[in-house]
From TrEMBL:
Domain of life: Bacteria
Pfam family, one: PP2C_2
Residue ranges constituting the PPM-type phosphatase domain according to the UniProt record: 27-128
Signal peptide: none
Record-given protein name: Protein phosphatase 2C-like protein
């Protein structure tokens, strides 16, 4: 077993405190996972009696456990975790339903002196790497294939409704999330960097990257500085304030076209020095 390479600080909160948080976060000494249960188009029509929060929690728990064994690659661990959840509810639920429960996944693991990462769908892993000092070396790993499906539909004159986009889920040429097909795990973006080169890192659900990718108010260096120096709570509070301000504008001038507030989950890692 290696020694702990990073401090980890996890934060998760629902977009609306009256609604169950469908994100899931878990950490162990050398692993962190963040899952974001995909909001169904119709909660009463998913083919599943368990729900999205259950899906994210169950998949995330398996993934944490399998990754902690350190034998298999993160992609293999995710494939096995997807298979296990599928087997857990294949007998009771219709997993062929086009909108059966699904989740985006981001994960990191320290193994053999390297920080391994995996991102499936629009979750993020952000690495702040040692640089020569002239400018920061930030690597932002996220998968835009779902929004590309929307763009392609629009270009073809098809309204990119939730339903139209979702029929491209987990299909070649479409986009990939964790759902009923284990092979989705091998569509994840993955890689590794030496632990010694990582100054800080964030793994996050898409609700925790809005200041950067929806509102464009921050770059990742500013965001990481805010998290490190003022706290994860200050970073999330800032997200909520900006969302609220945007929602108060007339709809034509709003930046955010999605939910006003989304479930917001991140793990912040800093290397022990
Ligand atoms: Zn189910």
């Amino acid at each position: 077993m290696g020694s702990m390479a990073f401090r980890m600080l996890a934060w998760s909160e629902p977009g609306d405190p009256r609604v169950e948080n469908e994100d899931f976060v878990a950490t162990s000494a050398d692993v962190a996972v963040v899952l974001d249960g995909v909001t169904p188009l119709d909660r009463d029509d998913t083919g599943c009696q368990h729900g999205v929060a259950w899906y994210a929690r169950t998949l995330g728990t398996y993934l944490l456990q399998l990754a902690g064994d350190r034998r298999d690659s993160l992609a293999d661990c995710l494939a096995t975790a997807i298979r296990r959840v599928r087997d857990d509810h294949a007998g009771t639920c219709d997993l062929d339903h086009f909108d059966s429960p699904a989740a985006t996944v981001s994960a990191v693991r320290v193994r053999d002196g390297r920080l391994e990462y995996l991102v499936l769908s629009d979750a993020s892993v952000v690495l702040d790497l040692e640089s020569d000092g002239t400018k920061p070396d930030i690597r932002w790993i996220t998968d835009h294939r779902a929004s590309e499906v929307g763009r392609r539909l629009r270009a073809a004159g098809i309204p990119p409704t939730g339903h139209a986009v979702r029929t491209h889920r987990n299909r070649a040429g479409g986009y990939w999330v964790a759902a009923e097909r284990p092979e989705a795990a091998y569509q994840a973006l993955g890689g590794s960097v030496p632990v010694a080169e990582v100054r800080r890192a964030v793994i996050a659900s898409d609700g925790a990257t809005r200041l950067i990718d929806v509102f464009g108010l921050f770059d990742w260096t500013d965001a990481l500085d805010l998290i490190e120096h003022e706290g994860v709570d200050a970073y999330v509070a800032r997200t909520r304030a900006v969302e609220k301000e945007d929602a108060a504008r007339p709809s034509a001038s709003r930046v955010n076209r999605g939910k006003t507030h989304d479930d917001t989950t991140l793990v912040f890692l800093t290397r022990w020095t």
